[in-house]
Design a protein that fits this description.
Blueprint: E1 11-20, E2 40-48, E3 53-60, H1 65-75, H2 84-88, H3 91-99, H4 112-133, H5 137-143, H6 146-151, H7 164-174, H8 178-188, E4 190-194, H9 204-216, E5 221-225, H10 230-244, E6 249-253, H11 260-270, E7 277-279, H12 287-297, E8 303-306, H13 313-322, E9 327-328, H14 338-351, H15 364-378, E10 388-390, E11 404-405, E12 408-409, H16 423-429, H17 435-443, H18 449-453
Parallel strand pairs: 4-10, 5-6, 6-7, 7-8, 8-9
Antiparallel strand pairs: 1-2, 2-3, 4-12, 11-12
Helix pairs in contact: 1-4, 5-15, 8-15, 9-10, 11-12, 12-13, 13-14
């Protein structure tokens, strides 16, 4: 179980595509710091000598997606002609070598564009492994024993938080209930919360309409974007509370908008609406500010959630050990993909911090469901309060889209990581040559100031 004998196949090609969706036209995804995002995927396709393919995604907000794609191409030499056994037999060691390539490392290390690029590659490798073994990625992870899980992780810089031995012990403690917990998760699904009611660009009436819809669909946890204007935020929080009542939970998200003092003052005024957490109140790198905000808001019963923009396991370590986060939010397209997320899960479990993943975007829900299923079955000692974000758009582009019924992610059973786009989507949304983009440019409905001024060629000309 979990052996690599079936992975005796050589990588012969790695392609990358720039896929973008014009979500800015409807203000989907809008928040206090990102007013008009175009949800985009840096789409990685790995092909083996036997003809098998794996598909991976790294997520961006549009402009600059081509930079990540070019970075993937620069990492290509690390994979071509490499046997999959060499990678998966000790993936933690392989990741250390890949992330510490003597020249490319300077671009990070393990953060920024090169971190996003490596994440797309690693996600494609896991999709490929799932297809080879005929299992969804979550099932591969659940079936590995604790020692095999630990070999997937690079523990460099985090052993002052959790050692390999402690990780094995933590995982071993959960194994006695593995079969029972797996059955429970398969039966019940993964608890979801929605952000789709509360994008910053939405009108009050749209918030009301969407709240009614998601209440009818069984949701009890709702998140609202805040941070640009305090009076607007008070009004919008009141609208949402009037819609969902006080028996349901509400969270707010400032998307890194404030400084420390401003965050404390702003949230003191919003405390009357009893939000469960404030998400990303300030710079995603400022551990000490998050700690100060956490301490100031504790008397109000408001926790701090962060993680979607944490660059690597080392930043997460500092947040977790300092008390700067009360809710840990992993992201399936950040860091070095699947493996580094596993490191964060283990640190959070040791320190008793619940993991409530960030999702949405394009492909994030598809991937994060696999990660959270593994966490619920194999890592955490309780399912209570472990909710996962759900945004109800950009799922149709996938051959095996994530599904939520009655506010529960349905468990994916198809082999792989749920990351393959339909071929028609690639033709339509490849940037800037896809048919949808050509129509938007020719009609004048969309303009890209970056594209208009570029001198270097795009990935797709």
């Amino acid at each position: 179980m979990g052996e690599t004998k079936d992975l005796d196949d050589v990588i012969v090609n790695l392609e990358v595509e720039d896929i973008r969706f014009p979500t800015s036209l409807e203000l989907d995804g809008s928040d206090a710091i990102h007013p008009s995002p175009d949800y985009s995927a840096c789409y990685v396709i790995i092909t083996t000598a036997s003809g098998l393919r794996g598909y991976g995604i790294s997520f961006t907000l549009g402009r600059g997606n081509e930079i990540v794609a070019n970075c993937v191409d620069s990492l290509r030499f690390l994979l071509i002609d490499v046997n999959l056994k060499e990678i998966f037999s000790d993936m933690g060691s392989w990741l250390y070598k890949a992330n510490n390539e003597g020249q490319l490392r300077w671009l990070g290390p393990e953060k920024g564009v090169i971190g996003l690029a490596m994440g797309g590659i690693v996600n494609a490798l896991w999709d490929l492994r799932g297809r080879i073994e005929g299992k969804p990625v979550w099932k591969i992870l659940v079936d590995l024993d604790p020692h095999q899980i630990v070999k997937l992780i690079d523990f460099t810089y985090i052993e002052d938080c959790i050692t390999k031995e402690e990780a094995v012990e933590l995982l071993q403690k959960q194994r006695w209930m593995k079969d029972e917990r797996e059955k429970q998760v398969l039966d019940e699904g993964v608890a979801a919360y929605t952000t789709a009611v509360g994008w910053l660009g939405y009108s009050d009436q749209k918030i009301r309409d969407l709240s009614a819809r998601f209440l009818a669909e069984g949701f009890t946890d709702f998140k609202l974007k805040v941070g640009s204007n305090i009076e607007d935020d008070i009004r919008r929080c009141k609208v949402l509370r009037d819609c969902i009542g006080w028996e349901n939970r509400m969270m707010v998200d400032a998307n890194q908008k404030w400084g420390t003092g401003q965050a404390i003052q702003w949230m003191s005024r919003l405390s009357e609406f009893k939000p469960m957490w404030i998400e990303e109140p300030t710079s995603p790198d400022d551990v000490m500010a998050h700690k100060a905000i956490s301490e100031a808001l504790k008397p109000f019963g408001i926790g701090v959630a962060t993680g979607e923009a944490c660059q690597n396991r080392v930043i997460f370590k500092q947040f977790l050990m300092s008390g700067g986060m009360q809710y840990c939010q992993i992201d399936s397209a950040r860091m070095s993909g699947v493996n580094e997320v596993l490191a964060v899960y283990l640190m959070a479990a040791k320190l008793g911090v619940p993991v409530c993943p960030h999702a949405g975007g394009v492909g994030l829900c598809e991937m994060v469901q696999h990660l959270q299923i593994f966490y619920l079955i194999s890592v955490t000692d309780t399912l209570e309060g472990r909710i996962t974000e759900w945004v109800d758009h950009l799922h149709d582009p996938f051959t095996n889209p994530a599904r939520v019924i009655n506010a529960r992610y349905q468990i994916p059973l198809e082999p792989g990581y749920s990351t393959q786009f339909k071929d028609s989507i690639r033709r339509e949304y490849m940037y800037p040559t896809g048919t949808v983009w050509k129509d938007l440019f020719s009609s004048g409905k969309y303009k890209d100031p970056s594209l208009e001024k570029k001198k270097l060629p795009m990935i797709h000309n």
